[in-house]
Design brief:
Elements: E1 14-21, E2 28-32, H1 35-39, E3 45-52, E4 55-62, H2 76-88, E5 97-106, E6 114-121, E7 127-128, H3 134-146, E8 154-159, E9 164-172, E10 175-179, E11 196-200, E12 203-212, E13 214-219, H4 226-236, E14 250-255, E15 264-269, H5 281-291, H6 297-301, E16 310-315, E17 318-327, E18 330-347
Parallel strand pairs: 4-5, 6-8, 13-14, 15-16
Antiparallel strand pairs: 1-2, 3-4, 3-18, 5-6, 6-7, 8-9, 9-10, 10-18, 11-12, 12-13, 14-15, 16-17, 17-18
Length: 348
Amino acid sequence: MFENELSKSWLDDDPTGAVLLDSPYTLERHPIPSLRSLLGTRHPIAVERILSGTTHCVVITCDEKITTDWDEHGLLPLRLKIVYERMVGSHVDKGTIAGKIGLVTPSASGDCDVNLTFWQMDNSGNLVRKATCGHLAGAVAEAAAQHGLSPRGTVRIKSVNTNRRLLAKGVGKGRWKLNFSELIPDDPLPTGSTLDRIQVGERDYEATLLTAGNPYIIIGESNIPFSTLEELRSKAASSLGCELHDHIPKVAQVGPPKNQASMLFARIYHLAFQFHPAVPLTGVVALLTAASIEGTIVRQLIPRLPDDGRFRIDHPSGTKEALLVSESGKVRELWLEVSTRTLTTVQL
């Protein structure tokens, strides 16, 4: 099916149009290639735009492993960028997130159904492979189920970027429960400490540095200017074992909840100079992982974990619920639900 503004011409080259190819590639103008030209016809492919929670995702599903000749001359990021721009364009509403691409192939491993390679657009408009995205995993589960890559009602997804696995269970049309526990390392505190101090100017900030899904800096303060947040990210990156980039590390600012039934309030600085309009799922994963460990910033706000493991986290646009099963500071299960909606499908 095609949205109204799409036409079959999407499958054909457009010699009249042009696309600007910029850094890190040579600045040139070229005819706009078709999706077939960009992705090749050697591999039957579906390209979909899926809204997962607040995130616009482009999911490219292949029915066989992509070989290196498909990425001739190492231009895959550029090709994916053009595909993304043709699929999404300006169709991004206020309060939603964009710039996420998932390349999905069947897995040869017996414990996974599909492999997911996650690409994200940085502030310069370039695509990079960094860490992982929870909302994209929901979109990938929806696409994999639609194309018969997992016939059991569950989708076992291997994150190629992190070499870790997560499980998605279908719980209704377009609704998925995701278990993120396998994205959490055995020791999620890279410095070995529940509290670290990061000096910015003449000020020391107390923080929990934690890697769970993505590398996070968790601080118990709000109203921190962008310049300070950027310096916090710069100084903490090496301690978190990651290279500083627009997307990582992320900063979670936490405090008392807005609602009586919730455990805490969180605001996530998820991209350089940008706060998330709601909350990234990996942010919830990081916060609940920190909640399971005595002495962290989060645990100071939640001295007693709920007996039933059900958490409610307030964020700028509402509340997110999650289920945590932990034992002796170790996360055994961590479930989050996401709703997905397929907006555009192009079958090649």
